[in-house]
Each structure stands twice: as C-alpha cells, then as structure tokens.
Amino acid sequence: MARILAALACLLFAPGAPAQSAGERVVIIPVSKFSSSRAGEPLPPGWRTWTVGKFKKATEYQLVKEDGGIVIRASADSSASGLSHDLQLDPKEYPLLKWRWKVPALIATADNTRKQTEDSPARLIVTFQGDTSTLPLKDRLFALQMKVLTGYDMPYAMLMYIWENRVPVGTVIPSQHTSRIKMVVAESGSDKLGKWRDEVRNVYEDYKRAFGQEPPPTRTVGIMTDTDNTGGKTQAFYGDIAFERSERR
Fold first, then answer.
1. What are the pLDDT digits (tens) for 148-182?
2. Do 107 and 120 form a contact (C-beta atoms < 8 A)?
3. Which among 92, 68, 100 has a CA at the least distance from the CA of 223?
4. CATH pick for 2-13+25-248 out of 2.60.120.10, 2.60.120.260, 3.40.50.300, 2.40.50.140
C-alpha cells in the first residue's frame, strides 16, 4: 500500500479553523464542485482519474445523489486509485482546507501505522511543489523508483488526511518508505460512521508540524479510497472541497 500512496503522490492536536470574528470576511478558493453536476455525469471540469497501473484494479468513482445533494461515491473492491485536481495556491494565504465526507463502515483490518495494512475508506490528499533535487538521497531514489514504476513524477511533499480505525485524531503518521509523505488523522473510529462530517484543517500549520518547515505552494488536491492491501470492499462519499482564508475589513 505504501507504494500505492507514493504512486498517487506522483500525479492532531493542532486546532482546525479559527473562529471567524467580527470584522472579517471569508475569501474562498473552491475546487471544481461535485455539487454543480448531476448524478451519472462525467467528472466536473478539472478533475481526473488517477490509476496505479494496468495490473492494479481501480477504485470506482461516480457522481451520485446522496442525502439530497450531488457527491462523489467511491467504491473499492481490493482496489486503489484516486481523483486529482490541479490547484496552485499559497497555503499561508489560504490555510484552511474544508471538505465533507461520509464513511459507512471501517475497513476492519486496516492500520495505517503498518505498511502491510495501509488502507483507508477515505483520504483527502494535498501535494506540494518544490525542488526535489534538494531532498535526501533516500527520498530521491524512492522518487526515481516510483517514476519508473508509474511514469509519474512525485511531488516535493504530500499531506494525506485519513479516516483511521483507532489512531487518535491529529496524529501524524509518517510513511515508512519516504519522508515526503505524512498522513494526518482527520477522523478515527466508528462513532461518526454513516454521518456527514464537515472537516476543517489548517494545512499551513499541519505542514509545519509534519515536515518542520514552511510549506511551499500546493500542486494538487485529491481524494482516494483504497482496499488493495487488506482486500475486501468499502465505500465512501465525498462532498465539495475548498481552501479558505479570512481577511479583516
């Protein structure tokens, strides 16, 4: 699974959103909206599928009507692939990442702290630009390996917000294969299964906490549902995604 996460990259105790105070106005950078489409239509403009390769089964993504709105339904069956959207912005200016998702059930044997069981019913992925030639030799060799395997260039860094089985919310889980992938637990456990969850994460602060440095501009945002490592089936639903900042009037 770690290879799959790295391949998809190719293409917490920290607080979430601060309270909006009087005298502020919200500035939003939306990603092409799922909700503006119709059930059964092709993906909205800007979104593209990302497959791991011809020998890897792909997760199915469809626009569907769910709970009165149009969202993406991801259906995985021993599969792994994702959807990606180019989005270049400064996370210091637009730090707040907002999205909605719903997970009906956990993957019983998944555990993202172990490379053999790195699967999740729902992932929200942000990749970052940067000079990969400055990375440690181990990371550059791994990126080259992924380029040969997938044909895609790895990004400089990636934050992956995941729904974990038992690891506490806010925990940063490092990839066991490269220092350039960090998983941040956005939801954990079964208490909120079957319910829409409105998530807010401060990407700027999460990046600094995960990588120990200021974040470069973003490269893409994407979603992923995968069960290729543990086997079995799962589903997840994803609503609209946006980056946001507050500016004082």
1. 877 778 899 999 999 999 999 999 999 888 999 99
2. yes
3. 100
4. 2.60.120.260
